[in-house]
Amino acid sequence: MKTSIFVAITANGQISNSRNVADWLSPEYGQGLFTICQKYKAVIMGKTTYNILAPNYLPLTNEGTTVVLTTDKQAKSDNPTVVFTQKNSSEIVQMLIEKGHKEAVIIGGTMTMSEFINAGLVDDIYLVMEPVIFGSGLPLLKNVELELKLNLLEVKKLNDNTVQLHYKVQKQS
Ligand SMILES: NC(=O)c1ccc[n+]([C@@H]2O[C@H](COP(=O)([O-])OP(=O)(O)OC[C@H]3O[C@@H](n4cnc5c(N)ncnc54)[C@H](OP(=O)(O)O)[C@@H]3O)[C@@H](O)[C@H]2O)c1
What we know:
The chain is an alpha/beta fold.
């Protein structure tokens, strides 16, 4: 299965500001996120990201699988695509394969992306670089020791100030 990350970053690699307000994200990032989620029909996110998006802004509504990582065994959702899980990243990939998915997109946040990167389970990375710099905030990844090499597949200008970088992760030997 192909697993991609799709995330908005600042010009200095942050994914959130210290105010934790998403007023720096372009409509084009939102459209791109929606499009890839609709295309892949399998979306992975952490519970903190879920809490920000639910109930009205979850990218899948009826069809597909929205995997939400959480240790909260009581978590419930009205959205029929949502599966709350404590599984690790490789077990999640296995679960999605068993459900018939061939592609999945990880949409955040830092903890969730870091887990999949650490497990070597990310094939593609889409970085939507917004024209801002935050002196403090949340980095793209945390507690990731390995070094990954990437191949640039595409650079797309989304508007006057926003670019989308599409990378393929080189397989580690
Ligand atoms: N720029 C972007 O494109 C973008 C996209 C998405 C999010 N964000 C930002 O990212 C921030 C959230 O990122 P984050 O790193 O704090 O949180 P996150 O990855 O969204 O969620 C973390 C939570 O997921 C659960 N979790 C993670 N790994 C788990 C595992 N292996 N097993 C069980 N549960 C697991 C835990 O929830 P429990 O405590 O419930 O167990 C944990 O507290 C927000 O500020 C948001 O605005 C930015």
